[in-house]
């Protein structure tokens, strides 16, 4: 590089000279650079899939020539979701054809699922292939406007060394499909496997090769499924889509907050409702606590759906700062409906639920509580309070306990700001 520097400087000083003439290794481009103002933006216009919750996570739909990776655990519903996506895509119009490539199942198995879920359409083409070259041939024949490959870890590139699912094979297959998408303008949806830790299986570069990475999550004991954006070059990467896995397929859940609340007529001690932010989406969740006396020297602490470390911290703050004695009691804390509340804004709801259970005093009906609890007993502010309260008011809640300095208001809610955990318990009559 030191020897090339004088050459480049000499070329730059001569009018009309080029780096290619100077032998600096430059190659004249076949296509000149285009001013940004002259680039046609209509070629990357979003095309909705027809599944509202999926389009929400994608940023409005799929972009022509984009590559989307949908990763999730076995049996979570990835194939069912994408089969529904190609079905709705084919229903868009006579010019829209979808090619579904399955390398894990036979064509008969996919047809059985399509019959069960009602996803049969004449413009949905099915190919049970695992050879990459053969798949590219199917694309040439069918000329689809949407391609689904299930899954990228089971595809084989015959001209590349390595075993199926290995780092070399997965990278080669993904690179070839990405090149196909960019050159033809056909959006490609890839199904990906995950490891025991929940990460996408294969090389880390796999996530860099694609344009969008989505994680499909769900508890095997619950029918609720979440599609979570991890990477998105065309929109926000923190959106969440909600679905419910049913016997006849997968259904969108456009208003999931009701799934995480237990509707009852009578007020019960040991319950509190909070509003969590899952990406940009506010979701109401209910925390339940049960406190029972025990003679065992080491009381039990059982947690479900909550961060165990944060619950232990909140219990210590209650004992030390609010004189809520828990040293001789077992404490059980859980969420309703399989919801996971791990953000600090749920601290105040946990503290209120536990204190309500200890003193056997239910909190006022129609109340939501928000706030992070500090070790000194203070209630700290959380982000997005306005959006959280708007969601709570939409579902009929009329009162909110929020941290001091939140500076928010809502015409349909009575909002009480508190600075300490003791003040929060006092304001709710606990």
Molecular structure report:
- With about 425 residues, the chain is an alpha/beta fold.
- It folds into 2 domains: about 45-255, P-loop containing nucleotide triphosphate hydrolases (Rossmann fold, 3-Layer(aba) Sandwich); about 260-425, Ribosomal Protein S5, domain 2 (2-Layer Sandwich).
- The protein has helices at about 5-15, 50-60, 80-90, 105-115, 130-140, 165-185, 205-210, 310-320, 345-360, 385-395, 420-425; strands at about 65-70, 100, 125, 145-150, 190, 210-220, 225-230, 240-245, 250, 270-280, 280-295, 300-305, 330-335, 365-370, 370-375, 380, 400-405, 415-420.
- Helix 8 (about 310-320) crosses helix 9.
- The longest helix has 18 residues, at about 165-185.
Low-confidence stretches: none
Instruction: State the helix count.
Output: 11
Please report the total strand number as a whole number.
18
Strand content: 15-25%
Spatially, the strands of the biggest sheet line up as 3-2-4-5-1-6-7-8-9
Report how far apart the termini are. Answer: 74 Å
Describe the global form: elongated
The name of the CATH architecture of the largest domain is: 3-Layer(aba) Sandwich
Domains counted in the coordinates: how many?
2
Task: List its traits.
Rossmann fold; Ribosomal Protein S5, domain 2; 2 domains; alpha/beta; ATP-binding; RecA_ATP-bd; nine-stranded mixed sheet; ATP binding; DNA-binding; 430 residues
Give the topology:
Layout lengths: L3 H10 L38 H7 L8 E6 L5 H13 L7 E5 L4 H11 L6 E4 L4 H11 L3 E5 L16 H18 L3 E5 L12 H5 L2 E7 L5 E9 L7 E7 L2 E4 L18 E8 L2 E13 L7 E4 L3 H14 L7 E7 L11 H13 L7 E3 L2 E2 L5 E2 L4 H10 L4 E5 L10 E5 L2 H7 L3
Parallel strand pairs: 1-5, 1-6, 2-3, 2-4, 4-5, 12-13, 14-17, 17-18
Antiparallel strand pairs: 6-7, 7-8, 8-9, 10-11, 11-13, 15-16
Helix pairs in contact: 8-9
């Amino acid at each position: 590089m030191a020897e090339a520097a004088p050459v480049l400087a000499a070329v730059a000083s001569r009018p009309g000279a080029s780096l290619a003439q100077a032998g600096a290794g430059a190659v004249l481009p076949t296509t000149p650079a285009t001013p940004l103002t002259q680039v046609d933006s209509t070629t990357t216009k979003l095309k909705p899939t027809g599944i509202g919750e999926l389009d929400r996570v994608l940023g409005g739909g799929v972009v022509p020539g984009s590559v989307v990776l949908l990763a999730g655990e076995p049996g979570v519903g990835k194939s069912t979701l994408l089969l529904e996506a190609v079905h709705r895509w084919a229903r868009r119009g006579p010019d829209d054809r979808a090619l579904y490539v399955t390398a894990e199942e036979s064509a008969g198995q996919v047809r059985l699922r399509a019959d069960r879920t009602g996803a049969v359409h004449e413009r949905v083409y099915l190919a049970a292939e695992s050879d990459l070259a053969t798949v590219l041939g199917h694309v040439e024949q069918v000329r689809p406007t949407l391609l689904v490959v299930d899954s990228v870890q089971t595809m084989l590139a015959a001209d590349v060394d390595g075993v199926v699912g290995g780092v070399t094979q997965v990278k080669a297959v993904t690179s070839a499909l990405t090149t196909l998408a960019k050159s033809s303008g056909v959006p490609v949806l890839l199904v990906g496997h995950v490891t025991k830790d929940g990460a996408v299986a294969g090389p880390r570069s796999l996530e860099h090769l694609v344009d969008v990475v989505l994680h499909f999550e769900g508890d095997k004991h619950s029918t609720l499924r979440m599609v979570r954006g991890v990477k998105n070059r065309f929109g926000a990467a923190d959106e969440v889509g909600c679905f419910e896995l049913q016997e006849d397929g997968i259904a969108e859940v456009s208003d999931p907050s009701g799934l995480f609340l237990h509707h009852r007529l009578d007020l019960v001690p040991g319950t509190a409702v909070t509003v969590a932010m899952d990406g940009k989406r506010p979701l109401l969740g209910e925390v339940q606590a049960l406190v029972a006396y025990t003679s065992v020297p080491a009381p039990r602490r059982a947690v479900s759906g909550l961060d165990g470390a944060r619950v232990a911290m909140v219990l210590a703050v209650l004992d030390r700062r609010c004189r809520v004695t828990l040293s001789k009691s077992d404490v059980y804390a859980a969420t309703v409906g399989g919801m996971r509340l791990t953000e600090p804004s749920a601290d105040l709801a946990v503290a209120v639920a536990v204190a309500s259970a200890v003193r056997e005093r239910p909190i006022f009906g129609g109340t939501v509580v928000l706030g992070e609890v500090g070790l000194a007993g203070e209630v700290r502010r959380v982000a997005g309070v306005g959006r959280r309260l708007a969601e709570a008011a939409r579902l009929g809640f009329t009162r909110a306990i929020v941290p001091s300095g939140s500076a928010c208001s809502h015409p349909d809610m009575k909002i009480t700001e508190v600075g300490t955990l003791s003040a929060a318990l006092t304001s709710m009559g606990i």
